[in-house]
Amino acid sequence: MTSRYLVIGAAGHAEEVAWSLREQRRAEGVQCEFIFFDDRRPPGRMASGLGYLAGPLETVGEHVQPPDTSLVLGVGLPRTKLAVTRRLAPLGLRWATVIHPAATIGPNVSIGEGSYVGAGAIVTVNVRIGRFATVNMHCQVAHDDVLGDFVTLHPDAHLAGNVSIGDGAELGAGVVVIPGTTIGSWAVLGAGAVAVCSLEGDRTYVGIPARGRP
């Protein structure tokens, strides 16, 4: 059995997501056909060998072969994810939820449509992850955490228990968030920042402890 996936994005992150999905479906006995789309690059073979770049987003609809075609979100920046999913909504296609088999997912965890959990990530218990969220490689998401839609955790971000991350927030590589903390919607935490208290949305924070940039 072969499933066709239309991957939105063609940078390295998109190839990582496609690789993760290939490993996920391989464990289920399913082969994957990947076609990548990107407005910024010309058509050609992908460096990873996972598939080929067919063209810009406007051409996605030309490659749909119902009923077994799904979209894969291969971009990681929250506002880009929002723009892309809105742009492709008229196609009415299902978005694949990608969980690398080397990720650890505990009991009573829900993961929304179009989200991605990378290799080495740990999502423990009683966690809610929204739609089109990115939990990158080696992230840790502890008990009772809630991640909104379009959230992005870059590699090695660590969330302690009872943390709430608002829609569209972006946490850089190595960010740490202490227990019981809320990060507001569309906030950005720079790489290595440590959130020791709740932070308002729509602002950028850096440092230890994380403080808002002027």
What does it look like?
With 214 residues, the protein is mainly β. The model has no long low-confidence stretch (mean pLDDT 96). An eight-stranded mixed beta sheet has the order 6-9-12-15-18-21-23-24, covered by helices on one side. It has helices at 12-26, 78-88; strands at residues 2-8, 31-37, 44-45, 51-55, 69-73, 98-99, 104-105, 109-111, 116-117, 122-123, 127-129, 134-135, 140-141, 146-147, 152-153, 158-159, 164-165, 170-171, 176-177, 182-183, 188-189, 194-195, 204-206, 211-212. The protein is built from two helices and 24 strands.
Q: Order of strands in the sheet with the most strands? A: 6-9-12-15-18-21-23-24
Into which percentage range does the β-strand content fall? 25-35%
What is the total number of structural domains? Answer: 2
CATH topology category name of the largest domain: UDP N-Acetylglucosamine Acyltransferase, domain 1
In terms of structural class, how would the helical and strand content be classed? Answer: mainly beta
Quick rundown:
The protein is mainly beta and 214 residues long.
What is the fold's blueprint, element by element?
Blueprint: E1 2-8, H1 12-26, E2 31-37, E3 44-45, E4 51-55, E5 69-73, H2 78-88, E6 98-99, E7 104-105, E8 109-111, E9 116-117, E10 122-123, E11 127-129, E12 134-135, E13 140-141, E14 146-147, E15 152-153, E16 158-159, E17 164-165, E18 170-171, E19 176-177, E20 182-183, E21 188-189, E22 194-195, E23 204-206, E24 211-212
Parallel strand pairs: 1-2, 1-5, 2-4, 6-9, 7-10, 8-11, 9-12, 10-13, 11-14, 12-15, 13-16, 14-17, 15-18, 16-19, 17-20, 18-21, 19-22, 21-23
Antiparallel strand pairs: 3-4, 23-24
